[in-house]
Structures are given as structure tokens and as C-alpha cells.
């Protein structure tokens, strides 16, 4: 179902009127790694919007390496995101980790993110196909090949939800200088093999805010359909991923530079 040969036209996914894929335009999604409280996410949503971002990201259920690290605000975090959407009009993207929360996400979230760690949680992927109608942002697992990633998209599509957006977020390599290695070659390869939109997450791909702009501009030049970037007002105090978060001002200047390479809506 994801195969370009069976479906020559690009799939365009419409999220409350914002189109992802198959367009001249690229979309920029910004927001915190974790929703920390309602005020912060409402403030950030407005800053993301003022900078030129068209959607808000924010994790409420967090897949943390340590069980002692902040696990997210859960339902309260989703409701804080909903409040931020009410205030700004920005559609919201958040990560789902287990199938018992599908109804909550189906009701409240505009794009359901499946994180790198769950890319091959096949039972969850099948449930998404059966029980959701919302677009699914499927991140590439950090040790998965492109064909494995496409097969995970296929699981969701074959079970009934064909609205899949692929997201490259860096893979594990021998390199230790960056958190992950951004695999930019996926952009033309995914476009050749599939008809699905592909967006890039330069924040997790690099792990370092200083590298986020160049990774983003390179991805835009390579023809991605969008970017999803972590933004925080006070990265030093972020509950998660502070080292890779951009301040709103830097996020805006990145978007301004991206506009010189491609049309950004
Ligand atoms: C995230 O988006 O905050 C996240 C945990 O991403 P990934 O699944 O790519 O690590
Ligand atoms: Mn993060």
C-alpha cells in the first residue's frame, strides 16, 4: 500500500486544512519535548505560531530511558495541548505509547506520533490501523533499515489507516559526537519507494541545538515535506531534551532561512 509503483501520485495528508506531502510547501512543527505545565505550552504555542510554525508538538507520554526520569504529564498533558490549540488554532502532535490510550488520542490529538522505540511494536501498529482515523507520524527506529520502516507503515495501512507520515529522527552509528546520525539519503529514497510524506526531526537527529539549523536547512534542500523541531523558552531547565531545544528566536531565524530554500507555509 505504501509502494510508489502501486500509487504514483504523492499522498497529501490534510490536517485541519494544512497539507503535508506532495506540495511545493513545507510545514514546520515546533514545541517542547515534554509538556511541563499548561502555561508553558500555551506560551510556546504562541511563540511557535509567531515564528511561522503551523503545528504544535508536545509529549505527554514520554518514552524515557530511565524509569526514574520524568514520564510526562499524561492525560493532563494532552488536555494542556488541547488548551494550547484552543488558544492558537495550531493543530497538535503528541506521542502515543500504548493501545489503551488510543481513544484519548483519537478524541484530542490531530496527529498521533509513534516514537522510534515503538516503530516495530506490531500489535500497536495494527491497533492504530483499526482504531484511529487521525494521521500517524511514524518515526524511524534508531536501528531500523528503510525497508523495515516502510513495512511498519504498511502494518498501519494494511490494518485500515492509510494516513501515514514518515519521520526520520537519526539513527545509531559509531559516531559519538552527535546523539544520532541524520540520514538525509532517506528523503529521495522514501520518495522513490513510497508515495508517503517524509518529515525530518533535526532535534533528535543531532541532540545539539547548535546543529539543528544546519541539519534543518540541509533537509529542506534535500526535499523533505516538513520539519519537527523541539522549542523551549528555557532549555537549561527543560524536563527532557534541553540540550537540543531551540529558543523561539532561533526557531524563527531558522524558518526565515528555510524560506530562502523552499516555500514554508
Ligand atoms: C520525541 O519526539 O520527543 C521522541 C521521544 O522522539 P523519538 O521517538 O524520535 O526518540
Ligand atoms: Mn524529545
From TrEMBL:
The keyword DNA-binding does not apply. It is an enzyme of class 2 (transferase). It comes from Breznakia pachnodae. This is 3-deoxy-7-phosphoheptulonate synthase. Residues 12-254 form the DAHP synthetase I/KDSA domain. GO terms for molecular function: 3-deoxy-7-phosphoheptulonate synthase activity. Its EC number is 2.5.1.54. Keywords: Transferase. It comes from the Bacteria. The chain holds residues 71 to 335 of 339 of the full protein.
Amino acid at each position: 500500500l505504501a509502494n510508489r509503483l502501486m500509487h504514483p501520485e504523492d499522498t497529501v495528508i490534510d490536517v485541519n486544512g494544512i497539507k503535508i506531502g506532495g506540495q511545493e510547501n513545507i510545514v514546520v512543527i515546533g514545541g517542547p519535548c515534554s509538556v511541563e505545565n499548561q502555561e508553558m505550552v500555551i506560551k510556546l504555542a504562541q511563540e511557535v505560531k509567531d515564528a511561522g510554525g503551523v503545528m504544535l508538538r508536545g509529549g505527554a507520554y514520554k518514552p524515557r530511558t530511565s524509569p526514574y526520569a520524568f514520564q510526562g504529564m499524561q492525560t493532563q498533558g494532552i488536555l494542556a495541548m488541547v488548551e494550547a490549540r484552543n488558544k492558537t488554532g495550531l493543530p497538535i502532535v503528541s506521542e502515543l505509547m500504548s493501545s489503551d490510550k488510543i481513544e484519548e488520542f483519537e478524541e484530542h490529538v490531530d496527529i498521533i506520533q509513534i516514537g522510534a522505540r515503538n516503530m516495530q511494536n506490531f500489535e500497536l501498529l495494527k491497533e492504530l490501523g483499526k482504531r484511529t482515523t487521525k494521521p500517524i507520524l511514524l518515526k524511524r527506529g534508531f536501528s531500523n533499515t528503510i525497508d523495515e520502516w516502510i513495512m511498519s507503515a504498511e502494518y498501519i495501512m494494511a490494518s485500515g489507516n492509510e494516513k501515514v507520515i514518515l519521520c526520520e529522527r537519526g539513527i545509531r552509528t559509531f559516531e559519538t559526537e552527535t546523539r544520532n546520525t541524520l540520514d538525509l539519503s532517506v528523503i529521495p529514497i522514501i520518495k522513490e519507494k513510497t508515495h508517503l510524506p517524509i518529515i525530518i526531526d533535526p532535534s533528535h537527529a543531532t541532540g545539539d541545538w547548535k546543529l539543528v539549523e544546519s541539519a534543518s536547512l540541509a533537509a529542506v534542500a534535500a526535499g523533505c515535506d516538513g520539519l519537527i523541531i523541539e522549542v523551549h523558552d528555557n532549555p537549561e531547565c527543560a524536563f527532557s531534551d534541553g540540550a537540543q531545544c531551540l529558543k523561539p528566536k532561533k526557531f524563527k531565524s531558522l524558518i526565515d532561512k528555510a524560506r530562502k530554500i523552499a516555500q514554508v507555509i
